[in-house]
Design a protein that fits this description.
- By secondary structure, the protein is α/β, with parallel strands linked by helices.
- The chain has a single domain, classed as UDP-N-acetylmuramoyl-L-alanine:D-glutamate ligase (3-Layer(aba) Sandwich).
- The chain is built from 9 helices and 14 strands.
- Helix 1 packs across helix 7.
- The radius of gyration is 19 Å and the shape is globular.
- Bound molecules: 2-keto-3-deoxygluconate.
- The site of 2-keto-3-deoxygluconate has 13 residues, from helix 1 and helix 7.
């Protein structure tokens, strides 16, 4: 078997076809839709690839046209999809958004019994992590099927065994599982990660009400080596055993679609953190948080879960205060 292309980041999880109404209002009355793809891990993969990192995305998809669409879209973004498996017995999942005209969109999933929901520990192969530096996983995958939590656990364990670092975004999706199961499973995965990336609400869901500093100490105490809390419009804060740093938000004038902002944040953070040149935690945290805040904000300005993710040149221009050349 030929060797795999080196990857800065490996990620795996479910990607779906996304149907978005062209109009606002109740989904029941939406006559026209645009078609795209979505999935927390592939959103992060696209974000990282656009910023110049090499990325390998792994999943199971149906042996159907929607599976073709997902693989060709991700390959078109420069992502290595060599290890994706196609399952003739189960379909690729679909999800719909509903834009209300205010707040977060509603989402409706059609993913029970999908090919990715059949992911099991025996699918996780040592080869997944060959020639790679880092694994990124989310708390969506463990919620999908009878063995997907064990698959995520197996991947995190194997990745660490092979010397990769691991990041984990809990990405709580209440529509997919009970609160009790979500809390128990997500908490059990925290000790297996190096970088834990919860939002403030997720931190509260997992650990009860605390101050931001207490959340940092709490999750570091569970075994994470860096804890990064997304504070939404308040920016973000990061903790390591040696540093605690807060970064101001990147302000945007209009928010179009909030779905995918957390994945953009994760891509921004990882793209900087994994290329740390200094051993000063405070400096590294600040640079990574600032880039994460910028990406999270940019992602909210476009419809779609990943379409608004910027390329490296755009990030460099924005971070250096350069002007945009529009024509
Ligand atoms: O974070 C955005 C994702 O939630 C979205 O792209 C679809 O993966 C998805 C999910 O499970 O909701």
């Amino acid at each position: 078997m030929a060797g795999l292309k080196p990857a800065d980041v490996v990620t795996f999880g479910e990607s779906m076809v996304l149907l978005q109404p062209m109009s606002e209002g109740p989904l029941a009355y939406a006559p026209l839709f645009t078609r795209s793809i979505a999935g927390a891990e592939s959103n992060v993969a696209i974000g990282l690839s656009r910023l110049g990192l090499s990325v390998r995305w792994i999943s199971r998809l149906g042996a159907d046209p929607f599976g073709d669409l997902i693989t060709s879209t991700l390959a078109g973004e420069g992502i290595d999809v060599t290890l994706v498996e196609r399952d003739p017995a189960y379909p690729t999942a679909v999800y719909f958004k509903e834009f209300k005209g205010y707040g977060d969109p509603n989402v409706y999933y059609y993913r029970k019994g999908s090919a990715a929901s059949r992911l099991a520990p025996e699918h996780v192969k040592p080869r997944w992590f060959e020639n790679a530096r880092h694994l990124h996983v989310t708390g969506i995958t463990p919620a999908l099927g009878p063995e997907t939590a064990d698959a995520v656990r197996a991947a995190m364990t194997e990745a660490r065994k092979q010397g990769l670092t691991v990041s984990f975004d809990p990405n709580l999706r209440r529509k997919l599982w009970s609160e009790e199961e979500a809390r128990r499973t997500l908490l059990s995965l925290v000790p297996l990660c190096d970088i834990f990336l919860p939002g403030l609400e997720e931190a509260e869901f997992l650990a009860g009400e605390m101050t931001v500093e207490q959340y940092g100490a709490h999750f570091l105490g569970l075994g994470a080596k860096a804890v990064v809390l997304k504070l939404g419009e308040q920016g973000s804060v990061g903790f390591t055993p040696l540093a605690a740093v807060r970064a101001q938000p990147h302000k945007v004038s209009r928010v179009v679609d909030t779905v995918g902002a957390g994945d953009a944040f994760a891509a921004g953070f990882l793209s900087s953190w994994l290329n740390n040149e200094s051993d000063d935690d405070e400096r590294n945290l600040l640079a990574a948080l600032e880039r994460a805040n910028l990406l999270g904000a940019l992602a909210t300005q476009y419809r779609g879960d990943w379409e608004g993710l910027p390329k490296l040149a755009e990030v460099q221009r924005l971070q250096s205060g350069g002007r945009e050349t529009t024509r």
